[in-house]
Amino acid sequence: MGKWGIRIGNDYLKDLHQTVDDTFSYLRKKWTIPIIKGLFCDCKNFKGFLELNPGLSSKVLSERLKELEEKGVVEKIVLNSSAGQTEYYLTEKGAD
Length: 96
Fold this sequence. Notes:
Blueprint: H1 10-27, H2 32-40, H3 46-52, H4 58-70, E1 74-80, E2 85-90, H5 92-95
Antiparallel strand pairs: 1-2
């Protein structure tokens, strides 16, 4: 039984441990935390992320934003595709 008298199965615990492990292994990737921090500080566009993070390359920023989008942490909104105007926002999952 768990701390509050709730029976917790082994499968649940395995899933929980895997989720926690996956989250921490991703957060350890270089530049992930500064990018998420930038989103919390209202940084929304590609240029803004690069200005906030000297040393962050465009290639790595693109990779991290795409990974965060795939994980449901970030939402990408294209404002003007012909001008390349794109903004990024934390999803509800990302803000939690």
